[in-house]
Design goal:
The complex is a heterodimer of chains A (426) and B (954). Chain A is α/β, with parallel strands linked by helices and 426 residues long. Chain A folds into two domains: 220 residues, FAD/NAD(P)-binding domain; 148 residues, D-Amino Acid Oxidase, Chain A, domain 2 (2-Layer Sandwich), CATH 3.30.9. Chain A is 30% helix and 24% strand. Chain A contains 13 helices and 18 strands. In chain A, the strands form three sheets. In chain A, strands 1, 2, 8, 9, 10, 11, 17 and 18 form an eight-stranded mixed β-sheet that branches. In chain A, strand 1, helix 2 and strand 2 form a beta-alpha-beta unit. Chain A starts with 16 loop residues before the first helix and ends with a helix. Chain B is elongated. By secondary structure, chain B is of the alpha+beta class. The longest helix of chain B has 29 residues. In chain B, a hairpin with a 3-residue loop joins strand 12 and strand 13. Classes of the chains: A alpha/beta (426), B alpha+beta (954). Chains A and B meet through helix 1, helix 6, helix 8, helix 10 and strand 16 of A and strand 6, helix 2, helix 3, helix 11 and strand 30 of B.
Amino acid sequence: MVERGRRTGPRPGRYSALSLLRHGVTGQAWPAAWRNHDMRRGYRVVIIGGGVHGLATAYYLARNHQITDVAVLDKGYLGGGGSGRNTAILRSNYLTPEGVRFYDRSLQLYRGLAADLNFNVMFSRKGHLTLAHSDASLRTMRWRAEVNKLSGVDSDVVGPADVKRLVPHIDTSDRPRYPILGALYHPPGGIIRHDAVVWGYARAADHLGAHLHQHTEVTGIDVSGGRVRGVRTTNGDVAADVVVNATAGWATLVADMAGVRLPVQTFPLQAAVTEPVKPFLRTVVVSGTLHVYVSQTARGELVFGASVDPFASYSTQGSLEFTEGLASHVLQLMPSLSSLRLLRQWAGLCDMTPDFAPIMGPTDVDGFLVDVGWGTYGFKAGPVSGEAMAECIATGRTPEIISSFGLDRFARGELLGEKGAAAVGH
Amino acid sequence: MAMRLERQPDEVVDRDVTLTFTWNGRTYPAYAGDTIASALAACGVRIFSRSFKYHRPRGLLTASYLDPGCMVQVGDEPNVRGAHRLVEPGMRVRSQDTWPSLAVDVKAANQLVGRFLPAGFYYKTFMGPRRLWPAYERVLERFAHGGEIPDLSSYQRQDHRYDQRHVHPDVLVAGGGPAGMAAAVAAAAAGATVLLVEEEHALGGHLRWGGDDVRSALRELRGRVETAPGIEVLTDSVVLGRYDDNWVSVVQRGLPTVNERLVKARAKSLVVAPGLVERPYVFAGNDVPGVMLSTAVRRLVDLYAVKPGHRAVVLSANPDGDAATEALRRVGVDVAHVEDARRGGDIVRVHGRDRVRAVELGDGRRVDCDLVVTATGWTAPVSLLTMAGAVPAYDARAARFRADPAQLPDNVLATGGVVGDGSLDELVAHGEATGRVAARRAAAVGRRWRAASPTAHKQAGPLVEVADDAPPALPVDPHPELFRARTHGIVDFSEDVSSADLVTAVAEGYESAELAKRYTTATMGPVQGKLETVNVIAIIAEATRRTIEETGTTTWRPPYAPVTLGALAGPEREPVRRSPLQSWHDAHAATPLVAGAWIRPDHYGDPAGEVRAVREGVGLIDVTPIGKLDLHGPDVPRLLNLVYLNRWSKLAVGRVRYGVMCAEDGVVLDDGVTARLGESSYLMTTTSSGAATVWEWLERWLQTEHPDWRVHITPVTTAYASINVAGPRSRELVRRVVADVDLDPDAFPYMHVRTGTVAGVADCVLWRIGFTGELSYELHVPAGHGLHVWEALLAAGGDLGARAFGVEAQRILRLEKGHLIVGQDTDGLSRAGSAGLEGLVKLDKEDFAGRPELAWQDQQRDYPRLVGLRTTDPTVVPVEGSQVVADDGGIGGRVTSSRMSPTLDRSVVLAQLDASLAHAGSEVTIAMVDGTRVTAVVTAGLAQVDPEGERLHG
């Protein structure tokens, strides 16, 4: 049995087929997934950012460490930032042993998440194919596959015939541009309902006693004597022993409030979705060379993403050029999608670090922790980050699994090696 | 055509042309001009699809492109808007995702269990046991709503064409209703070129079904558009998005030979005139076939001469509802009852499942009917205005969100229904005034553009802003706020989301409009909120006891209308690059190698033989794809010193030097040689894949950091065919074809450059370098003469055994010699030291890109190293990417390059190793891809063949 933290409110109705049936018969309303609270004057832990990272941190603080005097603040609604704008792809076939171990733990937590949170997050293990269009990318695939295998991750290089078998709509014919020479196949990868992950964590964290304050913007962070004292918000001042910056897009601005400088540049990343069609794409397909990744949701829509825009910006406006390039690249892979219609495009903000790895753990300001710099891979890491940040807060020690992600690595020059592979690593 | 009316005065169908098409396998007649839905409705068809979740039968609702119930499959094209797409002869139309048929759909059983499937029910169940989830998934997947895309082979058997067009109108008018037409005419009269874009198949907007009162006005407006000079009209076309600086995308549909076209406009002024969209009303049974909007009735009757039903009840809150009542009466529909919403009348429930049988009024009366018409309000499609920066606010008096034109930038204007109401005369006058302002502002922009262009005529008038009289505001009529009756009904028809679902979502804590929408998926479907957004917000406001203003609005994101991937992609834009010698390679059975955009000869059948030819005699390789940049100017040495690690100040004319570039993080970016051809003339080469990157890199330094430096860069990669002649007999061969260059080793030593005539071709550049490790000459020949020189070399070298070699042989040769390939033997973290290039780094130079990081690396000892490996078993060739495992089981490095060496008859390997393993003589273990382990020893240097370089310098 999982040990539960201190409960401060009534237990929300447990979700199950049976309870659906009961509610259907009785017409009884479901309790709120989470509640609204008045802001306390102080919390032991204040987490800035109500996305998957912040909410998972609150959840694991309560579940694993029985710390429930926790507030999660978000300037908008829950999951309105990167958590609601990503393309919801999960995988663990990274390039460095540190990356593989970290993301594999995340995948492991994701696999058990629906049962753990009592909220169906709809993890669809479709498998994940990264296509190789040149012998150079095939070589990188082999490298990744070998690192993965040595770390116990199911990942291997497959040939064009296997690609065709997995995705019959892909054009694997012999053609001069972007031929498909093979792929890195990662069966445990897949997609998940990203909003459900946010809501599941929010509901579970609320149930265990954390306070979720939406539409509460942090306007300042109080630091004195080298330690954090609390935050100022649009909803009043709040004292805190620990403040966690779990934001994306604005991570540098929030850290600035505490006087902490981050080596982060913010770039928009665009994505788009098509009208639904009958399921035909049963695998996540990625092409680094073509800067595109494609998956089909359970609703039938195709979700497309790309690499980050080539310039730093806080704008979440989409561009026409992006959709043109995207469409052209998708049709290079799957020409018969030409009559499929693009329905909507959007953009999210990605905080890029120099080595394409996150920044996690303590800073020079005592009590001010960061979980930032998530680039284009933050969603995949939500559960493991929450688990590790919670441990970091509760124990005051940096857990081994995130020890190589510290902010001080930049001063020491110990950068991580994901940059080569993570440029379009979805 | 049982429901076809007698000829109507404004009908758009051509009764002289009868077509046939099939619907679910049965043949139906249609007139030219009929939409799929109007033709079927004329034949009495009332059900066109089944709804997403509950598979409820769906009929016509808006009878327009937006109609959520009319998505059909046409041939291999999914999700065709049946109420908009015109019938073509022989068209094969099917209903989508119905089984076994549209009439009897098994999944309609979901209606019976609907109470157990509330919004987001799938989040609450199917959680365990985990092993069953894939099975649940298959079930959920069956509910994916939409058509089918063709498989690859059937797609490739047919002709598909998509294209793109660029236009530069002074004024682009989005919407061809009365205000839009008037704006276009007025702008054209003021001298502007105008692109008028209309979503429907004809201009006119709501005047098309306005009847006798407006017929002559419509004819006159259309006539003015037709005769005005400089107006181009695109019908069946929609403005998709407005981006910075009025970059406007338009989709053009219904073209005869093109499936769809993307029109990209740089409009000096944009006039937004999309009119208004009629809003559905929410009540129980509002999705039963036979419930439709007043505009749907008028389209069916006036445009298509289709009788929408036999006995109608109308809920009217505005003059358009009254006009629909009139239209129905005129064509003989029995209007059983008109419920006037302005006097508190209401409709609360429809009885019937597959068709309307009766309706229950607000006061409880029940009226039998087969048609229910609602006219309960309008939504302003403010999408383009929000893309231009306006923030719409809710106007309770008019019961719609409106955008304030004052928030728009100068180059975006709005007219017509999207900004206000008014009589036809007022709308036309407003449109005209708007068109004039748009033209004036466009002219001012044009003058600015011309003034900024050095080549344009400057006589186009003085550069002053013309005074600009904003058009008077249109009146805004009051309208009752009508969103939902006291019963619950469908809000989002494409997603099958009911008002009850929204209330449930709010009760469960999803109180923000965005959260409630995401939880229920309301507004996420193909209509993207254009019909339902305001109802959704109103119902969330009601459920949260907030006002509509407090509940907010949504962010409208492009595209406004869905657009095919084909049109967005346009014609194929992925050129393939071929060297001028490619025809020779093809003729000589070269195996092609795709290298970026280039096709290169991988080998000619025997790479090992090609290697031996180079080591023993002479070989030729086509190296045209290597990047070539012509650098001119007195400051070139400064630039070279800045981007390369080594020193360039003293490179003499006639010399060539190898250089490595690092990014600012010290990571190796590219390598190549640069020659000084003349006093201030240099030729730089880059790797083939790095050509574009390096050019951008140099330009970035020049343009952003050193704009004062006098350097001019011209990419000349394809201006030259590049041929490397390599091997101990290369001098002998080159001597036979070169007339005016002294090839004597003392006159033309290693790492020198000469220009001269090769095989009669003047202005060739020759330099001595040696990637292969052999004596070699690289010839850069004017591209047009490349093939001639290549063939001349081969002909001249017949007795020397000269033969062509490919990329594979070159890779083996360079590997034997221990020359690295950037990006293969280095990676995203390899600084110079990790590539064995410490010697090149001149830290005492003033400054260069990457210097601080490299200076730091210089003080470390523990960075990874590039080393040579000699496998214990000489026949073993570990696959590139194989991992080197350390004693503790951890990863200690990887094999970056490996081949069997024909020269040494054993494997040659380069590897990146952790510093602790990377000393000569240490034994390492390689994990082979098949799981076995082999051992290898670190060699003393990288070169396995001719480590002293005697061959190279000879």
